[in-house]
Amino acid sequence: xDRAIPDPTWKRLGFAEQPDFxxxxxxxxxxxxxxxxxxxxxxxxxxxxxCVAVHENMTVTMRDISSMxxxxxxxxxxxxxxxxxxxxxxxxxxxxxxxxxxxxxATFIVLDHGAFTTGEGExxxxxxxxxxxHGVEWNIKIILSTGxxxxxxxxxxxxxxxxxxxxxxxxAVQQGILVICSNGNTxxxxxxxxxxxxxxxxxxxxxxxxRSLHVPFPDEPYGRNGDGHFRPDILAPRLHLTxxxxxxxxxxxxxSFYGGTSxxxxxxAGVAAHLFSQFPSLSSEMLRNxxxxxxxxxxxxxxxxxxxxxxxxxxxxxxxxxPRYISKxxxxxxxxxxxPYSAIHSMDDIERxxxxxxxxxxxxxxxEELWNFTKDLSAIVRKIxxxxxxxxxxxxxxxxxxxxxxxxxxxGVRGWYMHGLLQNAPKEEIHHWINWSTDINWSVRWCxxxxxxxxxxxxxxxxxxQDPDAIHIKALPLRQWYTAL
Length: 485
Fold this sequence. Notes:
Elements: H1 9-12, E1 29-33, E2 49-54, E3 60-64, H2 78-88, E4 92-94, E5 97-99, E6 107-112, H3 120-134, E7 140-145, H4 164-168, H5 170-174, E8 178-182, E9 198-204, E10 215-216, E11 223-224, E12 230-231, E13 234-237, E14 241-244, E15 255-258, H6 260-278, H7 284-293, H8 310-317, H9 340-343, H10 349-362, H11 367-373, H12 379-389, H13 395-407, H14 411-422, H15 430-433, H16 442-453, H17 471-483
Parallel strand pairs: 1-6, 1-7, 2-6, 7-8, 8-9, 9-13
Antiparallel strand pairs: 2-3, 4-5, 9-10, 11-12, 14-15
Helix pairs in contact: 2-6, 10-12, 11-12, 12-14, 13-14, 14-16
């Protein structure tokens, strides 16, 4: 995308007109599972934003964001800040277009439970129980969870019911609260959210509301999760999401950019709050069904999830004959009552992946047996095998990694081969690494960048980018240098 300011996010989501700053999300409570740092850009929310923290001793405290100390780690809480700004920032005029948060009139409860540390599941459960007990007036309708995977190994496949976040949020789901979560940022990983959550993936809209310009994100994860259910449900823009500049005031910038499926999920949470405030009788299940049914397919993509289109959904809601949906329960795949040595030969790739995970975690497979699974027809199984192999054991195996990488068709599996090769990679291998600087898989390019960073005195560096339109541009100086050798 060029340097022009992107279209407002509300336009790119399919709103016919900008969300009303005073009414969009009014009366709707959103729990954002994240940490946050205070910032003057949040001051307009006044008492409509709180931070609930669960401490190691399981005590719960609540503070106004404005009273929190902004000193310390400048990066801590930045992710949560960007989510709230995407949802609730004040209107700003950029290039004759008004940019505004999607649900600025909502109430925001940021739940900081010490994510990605031991005991986080128990703390999250405690925090949600506290919020639901003490915050009746907040009318919690939505939970935004962008790190739902918690401390789980993101390659090893298991039933989603084993996940600590899923256990912690079970009561909220039973109460009809809509959990919206990120589906994942790269095909490097296997695990995806449970069917009970509205899982949000992303696509490339090039910062434009013109839907003819939209294309799939080349490294977008999709497919069946550990229960055998297709994920994600819906897609939203994942790049160049404008928010007011929250960095140093003397930077001269008017905007910052949020992205990834965290940004996409935050936007969908805003859409949900907008719709809940417009249609108070709307249930979480009906909202999910409407967003999916009235989304737009992305041409040329095997991903079944449609792009979100707010106006299509609202048009349906305003019809007198709007559809009635019947709740249904989908069957779940499980191997708990099977011998993993038998299930590993199943015709179903999810059963094979579940079985391989069990055997790997038990340490019951030899390295030779793992290599056999790198030839499985399923990329899910191959990722488990290659990630478990780790780094090459010797020079002969290292050569085998390069050969296997060359013949691998799936980006996530390539990422794991590259990650193994990155370990103890000699500078004499530069000729192997150059061609992978333009791979569509983010993790492959990340490994190339990290390899070059190990030898800054020898090689030009590769700037990392998530934007597929910028991959070749970022790699051009490196490739020109190599061609001139």
